[in-house]
DNA sequence: AACTTCACG
DNA sequence: ACGTACGTGAAGTTC
């Protein structure tokens, strides 16, 4: 009537029912570790078949949650007498949940309800929306749900075949309308669920009665019309019949907030499913579906045509550059600031490849190539633009005009993967395999750059794969609604980061050495005292030796153990301090030794003699939450909390005399993000009124006025706020506050009673994780949580906390990254001399000439606060001084 | 290479 | 009952 009618089909699976069917239908297979997999296998074949034959656009697998449902409140014998689920089957449920997740199918369960009720509710919702629905189950009761749009697929003989029941089919077979299925069961009962019905009434009699009277109520009302013994039986068991009918009625008003949109199904990802099948050892399916992928090695792969460019042919190369699609640079070593560029492979639009050895890059004849690399208008696809740009920089070559970075895309599509090597990406996205670098170069001491033949072949393969990956990755980004995240945030950020790293930050080596000298004296004195107190010399850095001294020799109480022996961490030592004077000396020693080794000696080693600066390297594709990380040296963990360490910051100075270090940090960005995404009114109010959020939390949780919040209450409230951001648990909070778990639990309950929006968010986000298998940030950054349905309590709890934390930490990361891109743009437009130097998660550090101080003090917070509009204001504090220490 | 400890947000 | 707070990187010791 109005526009195009899109055909949508929702499949709803009764997970428990199908698992049961599969289990009893198939022989008890088990894999090499002795785990049974027959039900999982049956479930798999069922899913594959449904996907192929039904082509669902929406999908849900519903599971029963727990043992007790609302039905037990009415009839405690419900499902009583049923044989316990055999362990061979129950052990398969976690696998089935993982399997469903690997298929990318949403799953759902709700405490107190059975899968039937969830499905009943979904069919009602889908029916209202006009979707076609297929319900897959082994349970005949579900036939009551059949309607114009809802078809019931009942498993038949095992699970290999299903029989489809429309209302017509039900009428043909039983002469009933779907609703009367409930009456049928009310009369005949169901032995397997311990529903009594009327004794002596089986299917035949029940059908006869229903054909005549229509419903249980009618049968009971007109029992007198019925002849013989049946009349007495019916009268005698009238209540049983009524209750049985009630028990058999599927509840279609389950209070769930699941939206149909959340059930969209776009099909499975071969590599994910392949990995699951490998785990389950479903070899036949792997082969049949050709999911083997991965590191198949180069044998099977087609040879790739690659020409090695020589000095004499560099001129000819210049003419070919217009036809380059992708470039792969091989830069060995972890730190691109000090790495060797070995060469590059150009993948031409013809499919052929050219290899340029690194030594040619410096040749005068390579000028056209260098110009092409630096040409903003010469588009090129690369892997890790940021790293390449840095690596080339130290060779005096610029890289510009990159149109797509494969690494960043791969990272966004699954930030939890530990690496995204091209070898892995080939497997992940089902493209022709590329050997692992390790197999070509060797690793560790055996690392060796191979001869030009195999080297050029390998790089050519990688460049070729880059070109092939691009359409696939673009497609995936689009599907995940990550275009903005990619094109407006991560991709432009890569160049901002490269620029910051190339610039570096000046470190005053002389001051640092002097500080190290002072530290050295203090450390020596402490060491002497410790040896004396211990009565022997030993390696204080060795936890093993330290443990022997403290616990065996001095007989101090063991507070905590580690995997390998006694724990001697700061928490333990603080508890031991009252017992022996040596302990506090050890704590002091630890503190100073850390400063000396990591921050004095470590930092000195990282100062580049050519520049007198340290050039950190930001990893943009490591952290699962979307944060950056910093290496060589790590400039995101320079001491600040303790004054002694904080002094280190004095050696970080501006590059030019008379300039300032300016630091701008977000105030409480994570709690502001939480206020925004949870929509919690009280939390929002706190920030809208620019209150001290910990004090406000203390007021609300303890129910006192602002004046009555003492330091201790604020401290506890602060710990609770931290806990909330981390995905709170009573245990974690009790550890942090040194209180009992019970007290911690009461705190948390108090908090949630007040901040109900936050509680709602926490429940909701975990539910989302369970159904989708992932959670997202404000800018659609995704984090997958494969353990969210694990049967192992620890794994599952960890995943739940991660589900709560990641959107918060990740959204904060989104915001500051967005600000960085915008600030870089503004600074370029305003043509300032000031430079952005560092990012420390919620802080940006700049060096600023005196005459730009006023401008930057205004520009930086303005952009940071406006980077992303939230329901609460973002607040930024700005400070500056002659070094990083003074910018406080 | 694994483990422990500790620095930061 | 279970037993960890979330996210990183670096240094030192031990195996």
UniProtKB/TrEMBL annotation:
Reaction catalysis annotation: DNA(n) + a 2'-deoxyribonucleoside 5'-triphosphate = DNA(n+1) + diphosphate
UniProt-recorded Gene Ontology molecular function terms: 3'-5' exonuclease activity; 5'-3' exonuclease activity; DNA binding; DNA-directed DNA polymerase activity
Principal EC category: transferase
Gene Ontology BP annotations: DNA-templated DNA replication; double-strand break repair
Domain called 5'-3' exonuclease: residue spans: 8-266
Assembly mode: Single-chain monomer with multiple functions.
This protein's name: DNA polymerase I
Native organism: Paenibacillus flagellatus
Top-level taxonomy: Bacteria, Bacillati, Bacillota, Bacilli, Bacillales
Gene name in the database record: polA
